[in-house]
Amino acid sequence: MSILKKDPISLMKPEVVAMKQQAIFAFNARAKSMDHVINMTIGEPNFPTPEHVKEAAIRAINDNETHYTVPEGNHQVLRAVSGYLKKKYDLNYDPESQILTTGGVTEGVFSAFNAILQPGDEVLIPSPSFTIYGPDAKFNKATPIYLDTSKTNFKVLPEDLRSVLDAHKKIKIFMFNYPSNPTGVSYSEDELRALADVLKEYDVFVLSDEIYSELVYNGKHVSFPKLLPDQTILLNGLSKSHAMTGWRFGIVCGPKDIIAQINKIHELATTSISSISQAAALEAYANGLDDPIAMREKYQERRDVLYEGLKKIGFNCPVPDGAFYLFAKIPENLNQDDVQLANDILDNECLAILPGSFFGVGGEGYLRLSYAVSMEDIKGCLAKLGDYVKLHSQA
Ligand code: PLP
């Protein structure tokens, strides 16, 4: 019908969405239509939500906690979030004015962009990156500026950050994510401090997407607002730490005035998030501090097996510090076009792995493998890849 609003996705073509989200959906649809495929494209934990968290949600239903809450979220939940962030990352957020609950980080990014960006603004996105940031920027009539990190081990260096901020005066948001999807790369405290020192000199907000903060294998996760509290908006949630992707629970924390602005957008969009998910989150934040440990240990075992196995068959990658992804460089004796190669591997080996270029600039020539799958699938993946390399290597 003519009054139908134009499809927001098609509005953002060609480069961002067409290359990323839609390509990922299409690739996955093809993998799903085939029989006996090992699927290493999955971006969510393959563990169940902890029992005590599920029980808290069931209790909430039985106790009729089934009504709207205030938009920012039940204040008991906000207090539990504040206590958790203090214990885990030594952060000091006032639960009454500096924390907001959202429908996952996904809604947090969307509402924060909407609250901050004006048409014509720019958003700095280190690339390759998680797929929503560019489209969210474009949806707000802002321009994504991609900083290619492929020549710097997929890390943002302070000097590169400074030069891009100097060259693009309209950057209002630095969209940061670590541990990173798709590369698994994270940062030491010194590296983060060096970036914070640069950012202090500019009038930009940092949106720090730390959704994988509990999945760090080497050392400790340092949260960015610890280093730059007045400019940082922290995005986190329970999707990855507590295997709760379907509950749609996220948090946005930051300076009081900006949180109030984001809350207005959030209220317009949602009224509030689910009261049942909030009850589950209260339990996770108050009593589930150790829940991620067993899952993290499993991911680490899988990471080690996958990393070593890939190395043996000629795929080099940075050892991932966190998250559950490996970003593997395609060996020189295979087809260097990652999209063609991933499709060929799917057709010949029934193995689904995402091409690196689906994650944008700098991802070309890489494949992203998710190890949020069983050890059996990891071993199956290595056997299939090994076979593929043997058959298809060019001398
Ligand atoms: N941020 C990153 C970097 C992700 O990889 C993902 C999911 O894959 C999300 C955010 C989505 O988080 P949520 O489930 O809280 O919306």
From TrEMBL:
Record keywords: Aminotransferase, Pyridoxal phosphate, Transferase
Domain of life: Bacteria
Pfam families (UniProt xref): Aminotran_1_2
Gene Ontology biological process terms in this record: amino acid metabolic process
Keyword set includes Transferase: yes
Location of the Aminotransferase class I/classII large domain: 36-382
SUPFAM superfamilies associated with the record: PLP-dependent transferases
UniProt cross-references to Gene3D superfamilies, sorted A to Z: Aspartate Aminotransferase, domain 1 (3.90.1150.10), Type I PLP-dependent aspartate aminotransferase-like (Major domain) (3.40.640.10)
Molecular function as annotated in GO: pyridoxal phosphate binding; transaminase activity
InterPro entries according to UniProt: Aminotransferase_I/II_large, AspAT/PAT-like, PyrdxlP-dep_Trfase, PyrdxlP-dep_Trfase_major, PyrdxlP-dep_Trfase_small
Keyword RNA-binding: no
Cofactor(s) essential for the protein: pyridoxal 5'-phosphate
The family this protein is said to belong to: Belongs to the class-I pyridoxal-phosphate-dependent aminotransferase family.
PANTHER family registered for this protein in UniProt: AMINOTRANSFERASE, ASPARTATE AMINOTRANSFERASE
Name listed for the protein in its UniProt record: Aspartate transaminase
Organism: Companilactobacillus tucceti DSM 20183
